[in-house]
Amino acid sequence: MGPVSAANQATDTRTLIIESAYACFRKQGLQKTTIVDIAKAANVSRSTVYEYFTDKAAILEASAEHASEQFYREMSKAMSQGETLEEKLSQAAVFVSQARRAIAAEKYFDEDAVSLLLTKDAGVLLRECVDFLAPHLSAAKITGEVRKDLDVAAAGEWFARILFSLFSTPSSSLNLDDPEVVAEFVRAHVVRGFASERPRPRRGG
Questions:
Q1: 3-class SS at 107?
Q2: 72 and 41 belong to one structural domain
Q3: Do 111 and 50 contact (CB within 8 A), yes or no?
Q4: Residue 144's domain spans which residues?
Q5: Taking 80 as the threshold, does the pLDDT of residue 58 lie above it?
Q6: Among 196, 170, 192, which residue's Cα sits nearest to residue 181?
Q7: 155, 138 contact by CB (below 8 A)
Q8: What Pfam family does this protein match (any one) (predicted)?
Q9: What is the rounded CA–CA span in Å between residue 148 and residue 140?
Q10: How much is the pLDDT for 108?
Q11: What's the CATH code of the domain at 110?
């Protein structure tokens, strides 16, 4: 077996352990799942699990990362339906606002993965979302969709916080189950705010 094959096998084994752990977490819960359970589910020895992960916390962290990658992969698919930044961010908002209901129904993501994702520290989740949004905002500066002096990191964090709120907080005035309501909420307030500075009022006469 050459070095490339060995590396591929190691990657496959690590992925198998992560996916098996995720299956155990779904079935038994995060607290009750043990290393032995994960090893049995992966059909590997406990020592093999320890070759890749120091403890259950490390497996949990890797599983949360796996869920995160899956989440952003699906959000990218949703955003690809739009051509402009406004359309892309509107689609991202619709995706997130419907995550708990529509995602599970479409079977490409589920509540357990969301719960696993949320085991991450809130600051880590925010940074990941900002990093995900940055290329889209930077590209929009080049195309002129947003102003040239837009602070990409700050704008990304602002919109990431909006997405977090859409995910977790119901509205008393908006029907967040309606994709068009969510999309218009973003169109009206987000990209147009990124596009140009408000004229400053003149001082004095």
A1: coil
A2: no
A3: no
A4: 64-195
A5: yes
A6: 170
A7: no
A8: TetR_N
A9: 9
A10: 45
A11: 1.10.357.10
Asked if 51 and 11 touch (Cβ cutoff 8 Å), the reply is no
Burial of 76 (C-beta count, 10 Å sphere; 0-12/13-18/19+) = middle
Find, among 160, 174, 81, the residue nearest to 126 by Cα. Answer: 160
Are 133 and 46 members of one domain? no
Residues 107 and 87 reside in one and the same domain: yes
**Which amino acid belongs to residue 153?**
A
Q: Is the pTM of this model over 0.90?
A: no
d(CA 166, CA 150): 23
Q: Of 158, 168, 186, 5, nearest to 78 (Cα)? A: 186
Percent of the chain with pLDDT over 70: 82
In degrees and rounded to multiples of 5, residue 26 shows phi and psi of -65, -40
Structure tokens at 9: 């096998």
pLDDT in tens, 87-112: 999 999 999 988 756 554 544 455 66
Q: What is the average pLDDT score of the chain?
A: 84
* Distance separating the N- and C-terminal Cα atoms of the chain: 82
Residue 43: both structure tokens together: 């059909």
Rounded Cα distance between 92 and 166, Å, is 10
Q: Is residue 58 part of a domain?
A: no
| CA–CA gap between residue 41 and residue 196 (Å, rounded) | 55
